[in-house]
Design a protein that fits this description.
- With 337 residues, this protein is α/β, with parallel strands linked by helices.
- Helices cover 45% and strands 16% of the residues.
- The chain has 14 helices and twelve strands.
- It has helices spanning 10-17, 21-28, 36-49, 55-62, 76-79, 83-98, 111-122, 140-147, 174-187, 203-216, 231-244, 256-268, 288-291, 303-315; strands spanning 67-72, 102-107, 128-132, 151-154, 168-172, 193-197, 224-226, 250-253, 278-283, 297-300, 324-327, 330-332.
- The strands form two sheets. Strands 2-1-3-4-5-11 form a six-stranded parallel beta sheet, sandwiched between helices.
- It is elongated, with a radius of gyration of 25 Å.
- The protein starts with 9 loop residues before the first helix and ends in a 5-residue tail after the last strand.
């Protein structure tokens, strides 16, 4: 039988370092007021003894948990199948890990989930929240505001509960990127340019639609079909467009997944891309954009960097002030347009 080796205690570290227990506690918990020579003695004793702070006790002293909630307002089937979320979560995870913080993933699919997440955030389990993929009627902004924890949102605010004017957020230039996409299509000589939107209860989709209209003006309503940021939504919308306007010669899709669905339908209908119909997406999600047939011209947004920046703003206290950061987008040319 093996004997259980007792964990080194705060008192043992204090004895090894030749200082008081209070001094060790201040050093371990990041407090001020300890002279540098004593700090070094305590750190050396911690390393020699293999002391690991009791996280529960530490959180009582510091009021910190070193944990950040990442709230995605989508069902798990969407989150784990859409590479957009994987990229954003990777960026968030890298930044949190670099600062020794734990990521706590919370997903919402229905009203019961909203209530559960609201209770969890209000329960003092995490130091802040990163929230993205919100929909216009989502109650989460109000629940988070009532929880009173620092929060950074992914995406431009625009929610109906009145909390959209005083939040910190990170977004891409969705409207400007859409303008670049449509200008590119027009520059190719295309005159019947259609748009497949994203889910229009999300500000990113609304902004991309507005960017399309900025260039095309008072466009024929039949040239706009609503999608939902998924390949299936792109397929359905592309079929609608071909039924209504068989003479279209270009399509701006709200994201790369939508464009991939549109490309499949165009191929089924014998339309050559880009000869008959040019297609452009939004996101530049690899490997999707490179593996479509043909490879997809698209608008690149740095999704992983958006996640990192959200986490960085929160950890630096950006959740206490009102500000927004909008990252630039760039056109990436491939064979589809």
């Amino acid at each position: 039988m093996s004997e259980t080796v007792p964990r080194p205690t705060l008192e043992a570290v204090a004895a090894r370092a030749g200082v008081s227990r209070a001094t060790v506690s201040r050093v371990v918990n990041g407090g001020d007021g300890v002279r540098e020579p004593l700090v070094e003695r305590v750190r050396r004793a911690v390393e020699e003894l293999g002391y690991v702070p009791n996280q529960a006790a530490r959180s009582l002293v510091t009021r910190r948990h070193d944990a950040i909630a990442v709230v995605v307002a989508e069902p798990e089937t969407r989150v784990f199948s859409d590479p957009f979320f994987a990229l954003q979560l990777r960026g968030i995870s890298k930044e949190l890990t670099a600062h020794d913080n734990q990521l706590v993933l919370l997903l919402t699919e229905g009203r019961d989930d909203h209530a559960r997440v609201g209770r969890y955030l209000a329960g003092g389990h995490v130091d802040g929240a990163l929230v993205f993929s919100l929909h216009l009627d989502d109650p989460l902004p109000g629940l988070i505001q009532r929880a009173g924890i620092p929060t950074v949102f992914g995406g431009r605010p625009g929610w109906s509960d009145g909390t959209g004017d005083d939040v910190v957020y990170v977004d891409s230039d969705n409207r400007g990127g859409a303008r670049d996409a449509v200008r590119h299509l027009v520059g190719l000589g295309r005159s019947r340019v259609a748009h497949i939107t994203g889910a229009l209860d999300q500000t990113s989709a609304v902004d991309r639609l507005e960017g399309f209209r900025d260039v095309m003006g008072d466009v024929d309503a039949r040239l706009v079909a609503e999608g939902d940021f998924t390949p299936g939504g792109g397929e359905r919308a592309m079929r609608e467009l071909l039924d209504r306007c068989p003479d279209i010669d270009a399509v701006f899709a709200a994201n790369d997944l939508t464009a991939s669905g549109a490309l499949r339908v165009l191929r089924e209908h014998g339309r050559r891309v880009p000869d008959d119909v040019a297609v452009i997406g939004f996101d530049d999600m690899l490997p999707i954009a490179e593996q479509t047939d043909p490879p997809l011209t698209t608008i690149r947004q740095d999704i992983e960097e958006m996640g990192r920046l959200m986490a960085r703003l929160l950890l630096k206290g950006g959740g206490d002030t009102s500000s927004g950061v909008v990252l630039p987008t760039t056109l990436v040319r491939r064979a589809s347009a």
